[in-house]
Amino acid sequence: VNHVVVVGAGLAGVRTVEALRGRGFTGRITLIGEERHRPYDRPPLSKAVLKGEADTSYVDTDLDALGVEFWAGVAAKSLRPGVVETTEGEVPYDGLVISTGADPIRLPGDGPQHVLRTIDDAHELRAVLVPGARVAIIGAGWIGAEVATAARRAGCEVTVIESASTPLSTAVGTEIGGRTLPWYDGLDLRLGVMVDSVDEGGVRLVGGEFVDAHVVVTGIGVRPAVEWLADADIDLHNGVVTDEHLRASLPGVVAVGDCAAWWSRRWRTRLRVEHWDTALNAPEVAAATLLGEEAVYDPVPYFWSEQFGHMLQYAGHHPAGDRLIYRGEPEDKWSAVWLTADDTLAAVLAVDRPRDLVQGRRIIDAGSRLDAERLVDPQVPLRDC
Ligand code: FAD
Q1: Of 117, 180, 227, 272, which has fewest CB within 10 angstroms of its CB?
Q2: ipTM score for this prediction
């Protein structure tokens, strides 16, 4: 491989560049990014940046020292074997890294709606979260909950509109979502409500009711940013399909981060994980694969969220049907663990209990069994269960 082209200059893209150099690759690297910013971390956008505690969140890296040609503000438009077509012309490659991340889904309607994906989005939103502003947040998932936290702190009048019967239901199910309901005290939380459209001055609900709002924020999820690959000869299914080495179906191509749906040996299924830890760690494997080394990506997926003064941390993967056990009462610090039929730990969600997360992640990695009777006692450390 002489020339590696990396499309997408987010965390996964820049970490792959670092990993290539770390593995001794001395050839040419071109990093192509649609945004006009150098690579930055997104988790602070809905936390420190939105709260006004930070203005930027650049990844601590030196692109010059890495010897990379960085094309900022340039988008890849299509792909054919050996050539990426961009808004600035064609770029031939020997090795290609697809790290284009994900795009937020928007709702129909002519009214202005904010999304929160980029640092520019975060600054625009922060500017309108002012005391007394009526803010309607659509979606009570991770982004919705974090934006609601920041909006309330800024003194806004917050309405959260969610189509499911509890917050966080898509990610962790309605039973656990129900445990977070008290956190919304003092906010106008509308559950089981569908949005028809975002109109001038607010949100039209299915059924006709209108929710007045100065600011509308849509946080209903993302889609892998792979539209530019629609005509390429590469397998796409919920993102770029890869094997356990992060190798895509087109020779010389790897995919990594939010846009990659990789085969997980551990869970025997294809996973696409839209979280920071994957963008941080999968690039080592993507770089190794591209350089012809043997490497497998098989993590215990991990993410966190900070909302309403709580730290939520999740590790693992729980298919429907796993047994759910709680450690601790909802009004206190608590965790939820998912056990498989043979009492193996599948996943853990820790709320303000970081030790459960750290220990749980190790237990999942080791594939050990737990004693369900001991588990329910939050005083017993997970590793002793
Ligand atoms: P991205 O960060 O999306 O980077 C992809 C880049 O590719 C983008 O800059 C995009 O502009 C560019 N691109 C797209 N298409 C093209 C193209 N055709 N040509 C050129 N460039 C292109 N995860 C957690 O675990 N915990 C958290 O608390 C957390 N908080 C988050 C808060 C927010 C507001 C957001 C948006 C995400 C959060 N995440 C969190 C998720 C985490 O940030 C993502 O998983 C991570 O950013 C994925 O990195 P990536 O490099 O794969 O994709």
Answers
A1: 227
A2: 0.99
